[in-house]
Amino acid sequence: MAPQRLPSGGLLTPGTVQREVIDVASGHTDVPYTPQPGLRFVIEVKRRKTKADRELVERDYLAQAANYTVTGPPFSMLLVGDHSSHAAGYSDFDDRVWITSYARSATEVPRLIVVGVLPIGRPTPSALRMPTI
């Protein structure tokens, strides 16, 4: 699906969830939800092929996720699909979901961002086998 432009008047339709809308906060939002006029909640979605630990995810994606909150409530969500090797297993849920704050300057209201790193590209359950003992 090609990115959508904002409708004339520059407002997203209340009560809708859209995807890939351009010209929102000078960018291209992945999933904006508009519950009512003047209120917008943005979910930024990324796919990462290399290690997706907290430090790397925040360094690479947090500023972009926070930028979409400048013209709305200071809250957003960042979802990262971790497509790296999971041969050694998966980390704990607590290591993959957290809440952080981000401000672009000392005078800006900090934005709260819920971050979720989700393992993707895993084998399907039917492809799993018990190890031979």
Average predicted confidence as pLDDT: 78
What is the terminal separation in angstroms? 48 Å
Q: Which stretches of 5+ consecutive residues score pLDDT under 50?
A: none
Report strand %. 35-45%
The largest sheet, given as strand count, sense and whether it forms a barrel, is: 6 strands, mixed
Can you count the helices?
Answer: 2
By helix and strand content, what is the structural category? mainly beta
How many strands?
9
> What oligomeric state do the depicted chains represent?
single chain
Helical residue percent band: 10-25%
Strand neighbour order, sheet with most strands: 2-5-6-7-9-8
Rg, alpha carbons: 18 Å
Shape: elongated
The H/E string reads: EEEEEEHEHEE
Layout of helices and strands:
Elements: E1 4-5, E2 16-17, E3 21-24, E4 27-29, E5 31-36, E6 39-48, H1 54-67, E7 75-82, H2 93-96, E8 97-102, E9 111-119
Parallel strand pairs: 1-3, 6-7, 7-9
Antiparallel strand pairs: 2-5, 3-4, 5-6, 8-9
